[in-house]
From TrEMBL:
<dbReference type="Pfam" id="PF00743">
    <property type="entry name" value="FMO-like"/>
</dbReference>
<dbReference type="InterPro" id="IPR000960">
    <property type="entry name" value="Flavin_mOase"/>
</dbReference>
<keyword id="KW-0521">NADP</keyword>
<dbReference type="GO" id="GO:0004499">
    <property type="term" value="F:N,N-dimethylaniline monooxygenase activity"/>
</dbReference>
<keyword id="KW-0503">Monooxygenase</keyword>
<dbReference type="GO" id="GO:0050660">
    <property type="term" value="F:flavin adenine dinucleotide binding"/>
</dbReference>
<protein>
    <recommendedName>
        <fullName>Trimethylamine monooxygenase</fullName>
        <ecNumber>1.14.13.148</ecNumber>
    </recommendedName>
</protein>
<dbReference type="GO" id="GO:0050661">
    <property type="term" value="F:NADP binding"/>
</dbReference>
<dbReference type="InterPro" id="IPR050346">
    <property type="entry name" value="FMO-like"/>
</dbReference>
<keyword id="KW-0560">Oxidoreductase</keyword>
<keyword id="KW-0274">FAD</keyword>
<dbReference type="InterPro" id="IPR020946">
    <property type="entry name" value="Flavin_mOase-like"/>
</dbReference>
<dbReference type="InterPro" id="IPR036188">
    <property type="entry name" value="FAD/NAD-bd_sf"/>
</dbReference>
<keyword id="KW-0285">Flavoprotein</keyword>
<comment type="similarity">
    <text>Belongs to the FMO family.</text>
</comment>
<dbReference type="GO" id="GO:0034899">
    <property type="term" value="F:trimethylamine monooxygenase activity"/>
</dbReference>
Length: 568
């Protein structure tokens, strides 16, 4: 088919690649001068939504890389510039540039009897072209949410995080920062270092995870399939709507569970022997720098954030407030960035969680009756849910009204919104890649979406809404990247067959108890990489640890969020 792809950022690039793999003809429009989307910094871009100067990924490159171009350097965290270079290498490696029309903005999409008429503008000239299918990959960062009625009377400078590049414009000023997301955490830290006074105003507490755990391992290496099934399946009475290795068969699930117990015990015994050997042999010296590129000593849990009692205490208290009712399975979005915590501990940043009341001139009043003077306000308030392009739109602006957050139920599989899902812990690029693989196979006629799409969408939306109940405004969020991707992989045909796992204990242990690795979706199925993907999967040994052992180091983050069955 002839397919139009809108946007050449991380989601658009992998969509082009997966469509080309299936033999489709692809034309991509991007309003920028090069690939990369928000990661591209091309001169005077102060009014565009772009990654700021010192941004560093909150997910390691093992999970931010695509499965068909895995990162060979382990679980390092890339800077903004490094990640842009990775995207550019991906586009060059697979010859994607020939399918992209740069400096070309899509202004309209019309549904026709033959398909879709896409209108674009380039250098002030509009033109239209017909397509069989459309993939919208322009991302959610389209319309910054700026309108806060509580700040309508503020007369000082107001800046949205979309325009933030660095903290220099706030040096020596009194700054109010409203809202906190992962980028917001960096902004709080940077502004707190240069402003004369900084206040962080929040209405609720997101769940905090540092980028590094146990001094030298990335926290995202603790994403384990067994743990996710423990949280969202075994520890709750709510049935998981997504199919995995055992499908809907209770017998197959029981067999799988029995094997996992046996291999878990063997793995645990192996771990005990390994730890004994480690005590009897000199420890291997760690490298001079950690995964963030900072000096290894003193040990850090995040950028400039030492692993000390004061920082841990504040994180633990914050997380208690994020789940006041207590929960083993999290129901609020994560912030995988605690680099702002030392600023609060030191007093550089003051937190007000009462909520805004009103503003008069440069005075901002809070709901707790306090007030303060500010020169500037920085809004970390996210983006409006505006997914409409011509005739294409999403019901209620809720991306959960699409199948698996991407496939439109009213267009016979020919319209996809790719990259509009954000797992609590995990990378968007691999989610976009799997969505694109599914979409490309549908267009090839090799995969048919379920007949009862409406029912399935409603069932999965209700499940997601339950597990994200404490973050109801964030409809793009998903509690488990593992469950989500495995379900897509099963339909695509690239999920490892259960029989293959049962007959290979080493592979079973790696896939079930090892750190989650997207290369598991390139071992079998369409466009597989076979032995190369298997080698990448085994590059991170399980080291004899069961999932329970792997999670023990994280329990100090969860003092008020323990499920009763795990509290002994």
């Amino acid at each position: 088919m002839k397919v139009c792809v809108v946007g050449a950022g991380p989601s658009g690039l992998t969509t082009i690649k997966q469509l080309l793999d299936e033999g489709h003809e692809v034309v991509c429009h991007d309003k920028n001068s090069d690939v990369g989307g928000i990661w591209l910094r091309d001169g005077d871009d102060g009014t565009k939504t772009k990654a700021f100067d010192n941004l560093m990924l909150t997910i390691s490159m093992r999970l931010m890389a695509y499965s068909d171009y895995p990162f060979p350097g382990g679980r390092k965290f890339y800077t903004r510039q490094q990640y842009f270079e990775y995207l550019a290498e991906y586009a060059d490696r697979f010859g994607l540039l020939g399918s992209i029309r740069f400096d070309s903005e899509v202004t309209d999409v019309k549904t026709t009897a033959q398909g879709y008429l896409v209108t674009s503008r380039r250098k002030g000239v509009e033109s239209s072209e017909g397509f069989d299918a459309v993939a919208l990959c322009s991302g959610p960062f389209k319309t910054p949410h700026r309108e806060l009625r509580e700040l309508a009377g503020f007369s000082g400078e107001v800046v949205h995080s979309a325009e933030y590049r660095n903290a220099e414009r706030f040096r020596g000023k009194r700054v109010l920062i409203v809202g906190l997301a992962e980028s917001g955490a960096d902004i709080v830290r940077e502004i707190g270092d240069v402003a004369s006074a900084t206040t962080l105003a929040i209405r609720s507490y997101s769940f905090l995870l540092p980028r590094i755990i146990d001094d030298h391992r990335s926290t995202d290496s603790e994403t384990v399939r067994a743990h996710h099934h423990e949280m969202y399946d075994r520890a709750t009475d709510r049935p998981v709507p997504y199919q995995t290795f055992w499908g809907r068969s209770r017998l197959a699930k029981a067999v799988f569970g029995g094997v996992s117990v046996i291999l878990g015990l063997v793995s645990s015994l192996g771990g005990d022997l390994q730890r004994l050997r480690e005590r009897l042999t000199p420890a291997r010296p760690l490298g001079p720098v950690n995964l963030l590129g900072e000096p290894m000593v003193p040990y850090k849990m995040d950028l400039g954030t030492e692993e000390n009692a004061a920082n841990w205490a504040l994180i633990s208290d914050w997380n208690r407030k994020s789940h006041p009712e207590g929960s083993w399975s999290k129901r609020r979005i994560f912030c995988k960035n605690v680099s702002f915590i030392p600023s609060i501990v030191s007093g550089k940043v003051v937190v007000n969680d009462a909520g805004l009341a009103r503003a008069e001139g440069t005075t901002v009043h809070f709901q707790d009756g306090t007030s303060a003077e500010y020169d500037a306000v920085v809004l970390c308030t996210g983006y409006a849910r505006d997914f409409t392009v011509g005739d294409l739109s999403v019901a209620d602006g809720n991306i959960r009204n699409l199948y698996r957050h991407f496939l439109h139920p009213d267009h016979d599989g020919k319209v996809a919104f790719i990259g509009f899902v954000r797992p609590f812990s995990g990378g968007i690029p691999i989610c976009a890649e799997m969505q694109a693989r599914y979409f490309a196979r549908v267009l090839s006629g090799k995969l048919r979406p379920p007949e009862n799409l409406g029912e399935i969408i409603a069932e999965e939306r209700a499940w997601e809404e339950y597990w994200t109940a404490l973050s109801p405004r964030h409809t793009e969020s998903h509690p488990s990247q593992v469950l989500y991707l495995d379900a897509l992989a099963r339909e695509i045909g690239c999920l490892l067959p259960m029989r293959k796992l049962l007959l290979n204990p080493k592979l079973f242990t790696q896939v079930w108890f090892g750190s989650f690795n997207p290369s598991s979706y390139r071992i079998v199925g369409p466009h597989s990489l076979g032995k190369a993907a298997l080698a990448d999967l085994y590059a991170e040994p399980v080291e004899g640890r069961t999932v329970m052992c792997r999670q023990m180091s994280l329990l100090r983050l969860l003092p008020a969020a323990m499920h009763p069955k795990h509290s002994e």
